[in-house]
Amino acid sequence: MLSHGPKTEGTGVPHPTICEIIEELASEVVDENYRVAIYNSRGVTWRGKGGQQERDLAKWYDEIAEQLKNQWPRVASIYKKLAEGYRSEASHWDNDAAIDDIDRE
Questions:
Q1: Quick one: the chain helix, strand, coil %, rounded to 5?
Q2: Whole-model pTM?
C-alpha cells in the first residue's frame, strides 16, 4: 500500500509522508514488503540484449537513495537494495547474452 502512495511531484521519489511512515514504523517486514512492491511494479518487460535496462534502473534507484539518505536513511536503504538487486540482474542478463553469442558461433 505504501508503495502506491504519492510521489514527490515530477519525480519517482516517495512523498515525505510515506518516508516518515516507513521510518517511524522501523519494521523489517514493512521495508521488505515495500521493496518487493516497488520491484513488482515494473511489470512485464521486453528484453533487449544484455542487462542495460537493469543498469538504468539501478542507477535511478541509487539516485533516489542518494536524495533520501540524510533525512530518511531507512527508506534510502530500501532503494539501495533495489539498486543492488538490479545490478545483479544486469550481470545475469549480460552473462545470458554472452552465452547466446557463444552458442551462435
A1: 70, 0, 25
A2: 0.88
